[in-house]
Every structure is written in C-alpha cells, then in structure tokens.
Design brief:
Elements: E1 5-8, E2 13-28, E3 31-42, E4 48-49, H1 54-79
Antiparallel strand pairs: 1-2, 2-3, 3-4
C-alpha cells in the first residue's frame, strides 16, 4: 500500500499517499489505552486521508494490541 494513489479531501484531487504509524489514545471499559495504528498521509499537502480498507485494518491492530495488553495484565496479577 506504500505510495499508492487515492483522493485527498484536503487537496480535492487524486494524489500519492504514504502510510505511517501514529499513536492514539482510546478509553475502553473506563480504562485509558495507547494504541499504535496506521494512517495515510497525502504526499502533496500532508493531510490525513481515508483509504479504503484502512479503518478495518486499524480495528484489527487495536484489537490485537488490546488483547495483548490484557494478557500481560493478567500475567502480572498471577506472577506479580
């Protein structure tokens, strides 16, 4: 997906974009979590772009990181 083209809503034209990892914070079940997700940025204006399939991919990334975090928390409870 690196350096492909799609429509940028900031530029209002089809441009190349680059995928980068960004950090976001989300609250799940009243607890704050930090996640690293993939975002697409326009190579022309630098604006964030909504690329087809990227939201689904990010949900998968968040789910995997959330599950990993909870497994580590459970292990800490057992092994201190």
């Amino acid at each position: 997906m690196e350096n492909q083209r799609d429509f940028c809503t900031e530029c209002r034209r089809e441009t190349n974009y680059t995928l980068k990892k960004i950090k976001i914070n989300r609250t799940i079940r009243e607890k704050e979590y930090a996640f690293e997700i993939t975002a697409a940025f326009c190579n022309e204006c630098g604006g964030e772009m909504g690329i087809p399939g990227l939201m689904d991919y990010n949900m998968k990334e968040i789910d995997e990181q959330y599950r990993h975090s909870n497994i580590l928390q459970r292990l800490e409870c057992y092994y201190g």
